Structure formats: structure tokens, C-alpha cells
């Protein structure tokens, strides 16, 4: 017969380390109901799901948790926590598990996108000059070829606009015309908006990489540009 697990002698180092950073994460309150798992898009990948993760954490199975690649397929959507009757902060747990890995050993795609964003202002590595050229070029095409939009206004770094809008960098790099529909809506409702040239891309892979420093740098540069240079009161994040 298998020996019973003695709860008071479990070594739960990982759980305690995460609780140091997220004191209200409530891992001990898990009812094992599985509601988190029912709505999780990453359930069953790599044989893992959020309910199982919390069980393993509470049983001190740190090594198994840390070596599983499941932590990288979580989309950080937060659905598990919203559904959880005990409000257990699973995304913060996963973030902290990711952050324990050596930065250079984290997945290349996410790492590269984070580094490109820090270096160039967008995860796709598009320079701000290229972004501005593409945006103005596509806007000109729309003014010329789309009846009803002859006076469409699209600007970059216009000082004093009512709102600053960021832009996922995939569109200007791979499908520039896909930016047009949103511009047309903004035009039709009379929105007063501009793109920023600094940290203009709306994505932030440093968050998914669990790179606090990179994540903060991107946001700070963006906010400083909006506040100090553009002097706009409102930001709309399109991501
Ligand atoms: S929904 Fe909350 S209480 Fe239920 S299994 Fe998931 S973490 Fe535990
Ligand atoms: S945050 Fe991660 S674990 Fe939670 S539901 Fe989304 S994908 Fe699943």
C-alpha cells in the first residue's frame, strides 16, 4: 500500500518563493474544482493544465514544474483566475516560473521579439522611419483611391492630438493595407488621433518573456514620449 503524503513535511520552496512576490496569490485555497482548466486554452498541452499546476505546486513538485515547457504555452489571458472561485492568481504564478529561467534560455521567438522591441521600438524590428514612411504612403493611397476618404488624416507625432494610438507592428511590416479599416472608422467618427514614433508598437513580448526590466523600459519610453513630447491626454492600446 502506498505511503500517505504528510502535508506538514512537504518542501514547497517554489510556492514560498512565488508567495514572497505575490503574497495574495492564495494557492492554499485551491478546491481542485477544475473550473480554471475548463476554460484554459493551454489545457492538455504538454500533459499539464492550471489545476494540475496548482496541485503540483502545493505538493512541492518544483522540479517537475520547472522542467515542463507548459509555462510557455500559457497565453497569460487570465481566464483561469477570473473563473476561479478562490481567485487564485495562476498567471502571476506562471510569470514567476518563467522569470526563474536564465534569460538566454527562454524561447528564442519571444526573446528575439522582446530584444527587437527594446532596440528598435517594435517586435518586428521595423525602424520608426520605416513605420512613418509606410503609414503615410498607405494613407495617401487611400485618399487617392477610396471615394469618401479624400480628406483622411493620418499623422505620426502630431503634438496635442486628443489621443495616441499604438499599432501592432505586424501590419505595417507584412500587410500595410490592413491598417486602413481602423483609420476609416476613426475618420468617420471624427476622432482626433496620432501615432507615436517612439515605441509605436502595441505588442510587448517582454511581458510574455517575464522580463520586468525590458517590459518596463518599453512602457516608460512610450509614456515619456506621449507625456513630454506629444502632450496627449489619452492613449488607446490596440493590442
Ligand atoms: S478554479 Fe481555482 S479552486 Fe478550482 S481548481 Fe482551479 S485554481 Fe483550484
Ligand atoms: S492565463 Fe494561462 S493558465 Fe490561465 S487560462 Fe490563460 S492560458 Fe490558461
TrEMBL record:
Residues 21-51 form the 4Fe-4S ferredoxin-type domain. It comes from Desulfotignum phosphitoxidans DSM 13687. One of its GO terms (molecular function) is metal ion binding. It holds the Pfam family Fer4_8. This is CoB--CoM heterodisulfide reductase subunit D HdrD. Its EC number is 1.8.98.1. Keywords: 4Fe-4S, Electron transport, Iron, Iron-sulfur, Metal-binding, Oxidoreductase, Transport. Coiled coil: none annotated.
